[in-house]
Amino acid sequence: METTVLTKQHKTAIELNQKILITAQAAQQNLYDMCVMLKQMRDDKLYKELGYQNFEDYCESEVGFGRMQAHKYIAIIENVKNVNSSLHFGVTKLALLATLSEPEQEQIQQTVNLEDTSVRELKAEIARLKADHKQEIKELSDENTELHGKMKELVSDADTVRAELAEANEKITELESRPAEIKFLEDAHSKETIRQLEDQLDNAKERIEELESRPVEVAVHEDTKSKETIRQLESQITDLEEQLEQANSKPAAVLSVSNDKESFKAYYLSAVNAFENMLKFVSDCKEKEFCLEKVDRLIETCKIMMEGIRNETL
Fold first, then answer.
1. Which stretches of the chain are assigned E, i.e. beta strand?
2. Rounded CA gap, 270 and 183, in Å?
3. Rounded distance, CA 58 to CA 165, Å?
4. Structural domain boundaries, residue 37
5. Which residue ranges of the chain lie beneath pLDDT 70?
6. Considering the domain boundaries, does residue 284 fall inside one?
7. What is the maximum span of the chain, computed from C-alpha positions, in angstroms?
8. Using an 8 Å Cβ cutoff, are 129 and 104 in contact?
C-alpha cells in the first residue's frame, strides 16, 4: 500500500487555497451587500441624516467612491439579471452588462464566456451587439415609415371611397325623388292637354254654328263643300270629346298640380333636362356648327318671347 507524503509546502498551498476561496466568496457576498446598501442609502436619501446634501458627497467622504463608481455599483444591482450568481465575473464586467437590456445580456452570455473573456473583448462584443441593434432599429424605422406611407394612402383611398359613397347616396336620393318630379311633369302635361282639347272642341263647335247659320245658302246651292266641312267638324268633335274624356279620366294627376309655382317647376325641370340632353347631343354630333347656330337662334327667340311676356305684365 502506497502512502502519500504531504510536504510542508503542499500543505501550505492547500490551506491557502481554501482561505482564498472562502475570502473570495465572502468578498462577492460583501460586494453584493454593499451594492444593495448603497442603493438604499441613495433611494431613501439617508445620507441627509448624516449631514450630506447629496449622495455623491456622501460616497466620496465616507466610502471613498467617486460619483461614477458609486452609480456603477448600484446599476449592477438594478440592471444585471441574476446578479448574485454573477459577482465572480468582477465589477467591471458586471458594470458593462448593466448598460444592456435583459435580452441583450442573455444574448451576450450566449455568445461569449464571460469568465474567460477579457474586459476589452467584452467591450468589443457589446459594441458590435449595439451596432447590430442600431441597424435593426434603423431597418424597423424605415419599415415603419413605409408602412406609415401605405397607411396614409389607405386613408386617402378610404376618403375617396367615402366621397364616392356620399355622391352615390346623393344620386340615390335624387333618383328616389324623381318619381314625384316625373309625376309632376305628367300632371302638368295632362292639364295642358286637356286645355288644348277643350279649346279645339270649342273652336270646332263655333265653326259648325257659323256654317249652320247659313241654312238658305246650303239648301239653295247645295254647298257640298260646306256639308262635307260640317261632317268633318262633327267627326272632329266626336274625336275631341273622346280624347277629352280620356284626359279627364286622370283626375288625380290633374289635382296633384296644386299651384302655379309647382306647375312652373315641372315645366322648368323638363326644359332644363331637355336642354341638357340637346347640348350633349350637339357636343357629339357631326353637324356641330349647324346645331349650335340653331341653339343660338332658339335662345334669342326665347329672349324675345320673354321680353314680350315681360312687357305684357307692365
1. none
2. 12
3. 72
4. 8-101
5. 1-5, 24, 27-28, 83-87, 157-158, 161, 164-165, 168-169, 171-198, 200-201, 204-205, 207-230, 233, 236, 240-241, 243-259, 314
6. yes
7. 183
8. yes
Q: Which of 73, 46, 64 is nearest to 55 (CA)?
A: 46
Tell me if 184 sits within 8 A of 265, measured CB to CB: yes
Domain presence at residue 309: yes
**Collapsing DSSP states into helix, strand and coil, what is residue 60?**
helix
CB 48 within 8 A of CB 56: no
pTM for the full predicted model: 0.38
Last residue of a domain, one of 101, 116, 132: 101
Residue 178 belongs to some domain of the structure: no
Which residue pairs from 54-63 have beta carbons closer than 8 angstroms and sit at least 24 positions apart in sequence? 63/38
Q: Does 240 fall in a domain?
A: no
CA gyration radius, the chain: 55
Among 101, 129, 153, the domain boundary falls at: 101
Counted domains in the chain: 2
Contact between 185 and 270 under an 8 Å Cβ cutoff? The reply is yes
pLDDT tens digit sequence for 98-115: 888 888 878 877 888 877
Please, which residues have CB within 8 angstroms of residue 211's CB and are 6 or more apart in sequence?
Answer: 218, 226, 229, 230, 233
Contacts of 281 (CB under 8 A, 6+ apart): 291
